[in-house]
Amino acid sequence: MKTYNLCLLGFGNVGRALLILLQEKTAELRERYQIEWRLTGVATRRLGWLANPDGLDVSALLAGQFELLTTVASGDDVRDWLSAARADVLFELTSLNVDTGQPAIEHIRAALEHGAHAITANKGTVVHGYRELQALARRQRRSFLFEATVMGGAPIFSLFASSLPASNIIRFRGVVNSTSNVILEEIERGKSLEQAIQTAQELGIAETDPSADVDGWDAAVKVSAIATVLMDTPTPLANIEVEGIRHLDAEQIRAARAAGTPYKLVAQIEKIGEGIRAFVKPQRLSPPDPLAAVTAGSMLAHFELDTLPGLTITLDVPDYGPAGPLGPAVTAYDVLADFIRAVQSEQRG
Ligand SMILES: NC(=O)C1=CN([C@@H]2O[C@H](COP(=O)(O)OP(=O)(O)OC[C@H]3O[C@@H](n4cnc5c(N)ncnc54)[C@H](OP(=O)(O)O)[C@@H]3O)[C@@H](O)[C@H]2O)C=CC1
Ligand SMILES: N[C@@H](CC=O)C(=O)O
């Protein structure tokens, strides 16, 4: 049985949740998938590049006792670090860079060139690097997987890849940014925008820079990822109409809720000839519309296909589970599922 050397680049909400999930699933990974793992690298700007090919102490890391980690010299860049950690898998979980996708794209390039699988929750890599990274992964016979980038927790890309052959998207409509949903609901309950952002941050779902959520860019990046990967239409952000929720005032938001037509940040893509039209904008929705009923950190994606008139994927994410906020935990599940898929593809040869 192969023991996989895992490296975490980014150790925030999702990185921590992934490590906890890996610990919980250790026996299941071994017994059902013949996967053993050890953590041989962790890196953030604050921690630097930490590596130990014999394995880092996961409990010390989760407890924040970084001084207890026994590390080997790992240079000062991603390539040295991957070598020092003898990485088999890179989990790229750094902050979103809406404009360029960097440095995450370079991290993934380095991992694939090193010979590791690259798995990410970072949407910027798909929007700005999908074709290049996919081609590189193919040449290297490694996997570049990114299920967590859109509706973290739900199967979107893997569902289309595995279960919807010869289907083409004609229209997509969804609520794909959970933070804006939480913010709108918190404002409806009486909070200010700043207080509502803080609630989303406490739930671990806001972007490192929450203006990406508030101003619609996180949803736009997801729209671009869907169009690029699932509709084979690379779509720069400049081609998407983007309007966030910042300009809505609290009274407007509360009045809309009182009237039974709450605001939701709606994302939409329509196929038009060989191209698409896409937007992200707040809309007042009426209850028969399933998007109107999306609550808290939950998300919904509705696809119209040339083969199926309507396919809806709903991800229910209550704020908290027994072990804490659920948002990062469900995203971590998508990352774990990608890890298993990468190994299975390697096992098939
Ligand atoms: N939270 C969620 O629910 C979801 C998040 N995502 C995506 O997952 C990724 C991680 O999110 P989350 O964990 O919430 O974010 P956090 O802000 O909690 O953590 C980000 C981590 O990345 C590190 N980091 C940021 N930039 C760099 C860099 N240039 N080099 C090295 N490390 C870096 C930060 O540490 P330091 O500042 O020390 O460098 C920190 O450890 C993001 O791309 C996000 O869009 C996707 C789906 C859901
Ligand atoms: N900030 C994002 C996190 C997941 O992509 C969101 O709120 O949906």
UniProtKB/TrEMBL annotation:
Reactions accelerated catalytically: L-homoserine + NADP(+) = L-aspartate 4-semialdehyde + NADPH + H(+)
Binding site for L-homoserine: E207
Pathways involved: Amino-acid biosynthesis; L-threonine biosynthesis; L-threonine from L-aspartate: step 3/5; Amino-acid biosynthesis; L-methionine biosynthesis via de novo pathway; L-homoserine from L-aspartate: step 3/3
UniProt entry tagged with the keyword rRNA-binding: no
Active site, UniProt feature: K222
Key words of the record: Amino-acid biosynthesis, Methionine biosynthesis, NADP, Oxidoreductase, Sodium, Threonine biosynthesis
Single Gene Ontology BP annotation: methionine biosynthetic process
Keyword Cell membrane appears in the UniProt entry: no
Enzyme Commission number: 1.1.1.3
Domain Homoserine dehydrogenase catalytic per the UniProt entry, residue ranges: 155-340
GO MF annotation: an example: NADP binding
Similarity section: Belongs to the homoserine dehydrogenase family.
Protein name (Swiss-Prot/TrEMBL): Homoserine dehydrogenase
Species in which this protein is naturally found: Dictyobacter aurantiacus
